[in-house]
């Protein structure tokens, strides 16, 4: 590997740190939910608002980022995004109210478009032979950030049991959620500083007529004897693209023409099915989900580590297999496995029962006020066949705030459930998702959308997926409280079945096919 390829790898690695910060930002909130609920006295819908605030931010950012990127360039836009991540992390860690926390998280959501910009920038500076690998680094960095968030949260929770002086001096017991959110500040600042080292995109410079600067950028990416030919090719391509540019409104109208109907339908199906299978609620509320099995808070945080590691391993596996096995086999297998794993979770929660015994109350009375323990006495010996029935009875007996403060221990004291079945189901689902519909959604989008409508079709798919993700995240705590875990996982499994039927029917195999070949495949009348 020559020095120019090494530089390309180095620049790509720097840019994809944004993916790491995204994964960290998205998952770190999972560990804070119990603490911020008590800190600010949040309702289930307010908890959902805190978690989903970034998803709302990205909906707005999707509309404006493209124009900003074309105006000031990829590098400066990435720098702006890095600064937004820093502001979000600082604001979240030092939030003094629920509203301030939601606002800070919303700002972080504005930065989530770093994912698409990173892929765009890498695609414009990478050597053709290395482009696929370098672009795929972004997805790996996302799950690496997610894994880091789970490990960071677990480590901080473990410190609560420590007698270290600094744990007491820095008030970790009370402010642990601030430390969890503040961890993001470090990689966000490092990313902003490292971005100063990457060159401007030569293709963007050419689009602005800044040919000398484009030549200087290319000099960092290839030998001197190749620069003139590469620059000439970029200029020719740029001029060809701008001979008859199609406005976004025109692209939107063309998108609904009959010849593009199948491609658009596949994109919409994929964009809806991917979030509807429930991956974001499971990832972002992981400790809360595991606590429903009665394993306790510390064990719930420990099990999230498995999710992080599995996410990383199976994303890497998807990158290895996607060009070997193809898109259809991975998508079909992933959906079948996802459905099977979600059914395991449904079975476990359907079979669960909740009985509060006198011995159990005695064991948890250490952490619960004696008056509260007395209020629980009428429930002793009564068996509930659903988590919602048991929780509603607890709230009626001791009040919403007291229940929230001791939810984990109260569930642990009463539940009878096959917790291993839930663990296998969730971990299996995460593995199936990350080896298939997770990373492959963007691959499929990039291959099925004809060049004429890419500028509007792919952002439309992203908007659909992001909108569904927002509502899935926002309402998960409310759904858990009102419908229960069994019904929630049933809805995810049903979405998976519908997606499997539709994508098995309509999704073509696009491996080793050019965009033009795929277009003919989806519109035979054009050939």
Annotation keywords:
single chain; 527 residues; mainly alpha; 30 helices; 3 strands; globular
Question: What features would you describe in this structure?
Answer:
The protein is an all-alpha fold. Helices cover 78% and strands 1% of the residues. The chain contains 30 helices and three strands. It has helices at residues 3-15, 17-28, 33-40, 44-72, 74-93, 98-110, 114-125, 131-159, 165-169, 172-182, 185-195, 202-207, 211-219, 224-241, 248-255, 261-276, 279-284, 286-291, 297-325, 327-351, 358-364, 370-375, 387-398, 400-405, 407-414, 419-434, 437-448, 454-482, 485-506, 515-522, and strands at 353-355, 383-384, 415-416. Strands 2-1-3 form a three-stranded antiparallel β-sheet. Helix 15 (248-255) packs across helix 28. The chain is globular and about 80 Å long. The two termini are 41 Å apart. The mean pLDDT is 86. InterPro entries: MFS_dom (IPR020846), MFS_sugar_transport-like (IPR005828), MFS_trans_sf (IPR036259), Myo-inositol_Transporter (IPR050814), Sugar/inositol_transpt (IPR003663), Sugar_transporter_CS (IPR005829). It is found in: Membrane.
């Amino acid at each position: 590997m020559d020095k120019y390829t090494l530089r390309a790898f180095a620049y790509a690695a720097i840019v994809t740190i944004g993916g790491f910060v995204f994964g960290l930002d998205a998952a770190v909130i999972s560990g804070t939910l119990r603490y911020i609920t008590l800190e600010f006295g949040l309702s289930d819908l307010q908890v959902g608002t805190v978690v989903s605030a970034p998803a709302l931010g990205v909906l707005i950012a999707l509309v404006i980022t493209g124009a900003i990127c074309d105006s000031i360039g990829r590098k400066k836009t990435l720098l702006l995004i890095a600064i937004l991540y820093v502001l979000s992390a600082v604001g979240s860690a030092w939030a003094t109210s629920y509203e301030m926390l939601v606002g800070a998280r919303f700002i972080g959501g504005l930065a989530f478009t770093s994912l698409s910009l990173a892929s765009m920038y890498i695609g414009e500076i990478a050597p053709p032979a290395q482009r696929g690998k370098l672009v795929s680094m972004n997805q790996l960095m996302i799950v690496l950030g997610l894994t880091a968030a789970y490990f960071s949260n677990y480590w901080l929770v473990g410190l609560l049991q420590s007698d270290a002086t600094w744990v007491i001096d820095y008030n970790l017991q009370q402010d642990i959620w601030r430390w969890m959110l503040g961890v993001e500040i470090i990689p966000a600042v490092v990313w902003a500083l490292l971005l100063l080292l990457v060159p401007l995109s030569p293709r963007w410079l050419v689009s602005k007529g800044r040919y000398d600067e484009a030549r200087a950028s290319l000099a960092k990416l290839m030998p001197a004897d190749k620069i003139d030919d590469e620059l000439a090719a970029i200029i020719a391509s740029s001029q060809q693209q701008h001979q008859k540019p199609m406005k976004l409104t025109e692209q939107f109208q063309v998108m609904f023409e009959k010849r593009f109907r199948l491609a658009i339908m596949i994109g919409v199906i994929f964009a809806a099915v991917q979030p509807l299978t429930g991956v974001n609620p499971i990832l972002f509320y992981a400790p809360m989900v595991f606590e429903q099995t009665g394993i306790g808070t510390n064990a719930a945080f420990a099990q999230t580590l498995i999710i992080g590691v599995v996410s990383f391993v199976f994303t890497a596996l998807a990158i290895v297999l996607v060009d070997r096995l193809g898109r259809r086999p991975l998508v079909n297998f992933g959906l079948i496995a996802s459905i099977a794993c979600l059914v395991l979770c449904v079975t476990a929660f359907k079979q669960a029962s909740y009985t509060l015994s006198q011995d159990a109350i005695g064991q948890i009375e250490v952490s619960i006020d004696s008056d509260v323990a007395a209020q629980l006495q009428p429930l002793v010996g009564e068996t509930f066949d659903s988590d919602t029935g048991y929780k509603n009875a607890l709230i009626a007996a001791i009040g919403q705030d007291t229940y929230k403060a001791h939810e984990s221990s109260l569930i642990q004291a009463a539940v009878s459930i096959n917790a291993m079945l839930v663990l296998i189901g969730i971990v299996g689902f995460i593995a199936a998702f990350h080896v298939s519909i997770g990373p492959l959604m963007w691959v499929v989008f990039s291959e099925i959308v004809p060049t004429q409508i890419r500028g509007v079709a792919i952002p439309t798919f992203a908007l659909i997926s992001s909108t569904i993700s927002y509502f899935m995240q926002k309402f998960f705590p409310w759904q858990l409280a009102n419908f229960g875990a069994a019904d929630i996982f049933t809805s995810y499994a049903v979405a998976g079945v519908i997606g499997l039927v539709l994508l098995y029917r309509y999704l073509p195999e696009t491996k080793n096919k050019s965009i033009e070949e795929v277009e003919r495949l989806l519109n035979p009348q054009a050939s």
